[in-house]
Amino acid sequence: MRYKVSWSAVPSVGGVRFCALACFLEEVSGTVFKQRTLQHSINATGVGLHTGRKVLLTLQPAPPDLGVVFRRMDVGSVVELSATTENVGDTRLATTLVGKGVRICTIEHLMAALAACGVDNLYVDLDGDEVPIMDGSAAPFVFLLQSAGIREQNAPKKFIRIKHPVRVEDGDKWAMLEPHEGTRVTMTINFDHPLFSGDHNHASVDLSTTSFIREVSRARTFGFVREVEKLREQNLALGGSLDNVVVVDDYRVINEDGLRYPDEFVRHKILDVVGDMYVLGHWLLGAFSGYKSGHAMNHLLRQAVLADSDSWEVLTFPDEDKAPVNLTQPIPAASASY
Ligand SMILES: [Zn+2]
Q1: Predicted pLDDT at 28
Q2: What is the sign of the dihedral through the CA atoms of 243, 249, 253 and 254?
Q3: Do the domain assignments include residue 154?
Q4: C-alpha 234 to ligand 1 mean position (Å)
Q5: Which domain holds residue 153?
Q6: Sheet architecture: strand order including 68-72
Q7: Are 158 and 314 in contact (CB under 8 A)?
Q8: CA 130 / ligand 1 centre spacing (Å)
Q9: What sections of 247-286 are H helices per DSSP?
Q10: Assigned domain for 116 exists
């Protein structure tokens, strides 16, 4: 019998982890990096951020090597769309799957939670065209996944490793993936607004040493009062409220409780990247960096990577000793507390 420390299960107080006080030990048997799905189905109801419609979300266990498959349950015979780059058809303010006559909007926060919890295979059933926004972050999805329980499957987990740099640009915006022993996301945002003039526009999260769940997953989506009217004219943000968006007026955050992290805005962009890169199909081994990158740039980057077959490879780690040690850390144990 062997044990490993599950870093994400170690409590953090003021950002400091007390390993000596709380080493949660997880039993490890056989191959370390196995594919994962849920132990049980679980559901939640919420409103779509952009459509404003109420939707029932049901997460169901799925067989090995299936990936994440979204299913529209409300359109006569069930329509399935895999969470793949080729199925992404709209990137205005969200990542949206389009195909077979249906849309499935705003998949990115759920995808980020699936990535961080190491869930490889899942059916995501919806009775509407948008994943519910919940509180605007990935934390409620992490809670759902952990409540359902995460189960290892008898198949090796696959990773996508970046072998040489790939970069995309659009005006002054850019995004890049580079080889890296582990997984790191670095993001810089730049808004012409007094709230964004400080030190909180840049963040780099090494998912090898940082708990995505505790330090990124709670960052909420954000928006500007001055843009709300424009968005609603385009039938976007119809479900947005102070319950699911950090709203910024000309000077400050208007949500009564303020921010969850001083740099919540850029952390949310990092959350989006984790979700968007998981649409590549596997946990990413590489370093992402971006300047003003959003869903559209993230999509361009995925397309550029997939178009350059020399820039990446899919691999497994059947032998624990040959894997980058940090790979175990972003993946919580089924028993991890949230
Ligand atoms: Zn987002």
Answers
A1: 37
A2: negative
A3: yes
A4: 18
A5: 2-328
A6: 42-47, 54-61, 122-126, 68-72, 79-82
A7: yes
A8: 13
A9: 264-278
A10: yes
Catalytic residue from among 50, 268, 282, 295: 295
Helix (H, G, I), strand (E, B), or coil: what is residue 113?
helix
pLDDT of residue 265: 95
Q: Which of 106-110, 192-196, 207-211, 279-283 has the lowest mean pLDDT?
A: 207-211
Answer whether 295's CB lies under 8 Å from 94's CB: yes
Calpha distance 204→101 (Å, rounded): 39
Asked if 159 and 314 touch (Cβ cutoff 8 Å), the reply is yes
In a domain, 148, yes or no: yes
pLDDT for residue 51 is more than 80: yes
| pLDDT tens track for 196-208 | 877 789 999 988 7
Q: How far is the CA of 320 from the centre of ligand 1 (A)?
A: 33
Per-residue pLDDT averaged across 271-294, rounded?
96
Stated pTM of the model: 0.87
Q: Residue 214 and residue 205: Cα distance in Å, rounded?
A: 12
H-state helical runs in the chain: 108-116, 139-148, 212-215, 225-233, 264-278, 295-307
> How far is ligand 1, taken at its centre, from the CA of residue 314, in Å?
27
Identify residues whose C-beta is under 5 A from ligand 1, the ion. 221, 272
**How far away, in angstroms, is 201 Cα from ligand 1 center?**
16
Confidence of residue 4 (pLDDT cuts 50, 70, 90): very low
- Of 106, 133, 127, 125, the closest CA to residue 62 belongs to 125
Mean pLDDT to the nearest integer, 252-258: 93
What mean pLDDT is predicted for residues 288-307? 97
Q: Any idea what DSSP says for residue 321?
A: G
What pLDDT does 326 receive? Answer: 44
CATH at 43:
3.30.1700.10
Cβ count near 5 (within 10 Å): 16
In total, how many domains does the chain have? 1
Å from CA of 245 to ligand 1 middle: 10
Q: Is 50 a catalytic residue?
A: no
Q: Is residue 337 part of a domain?
A: no
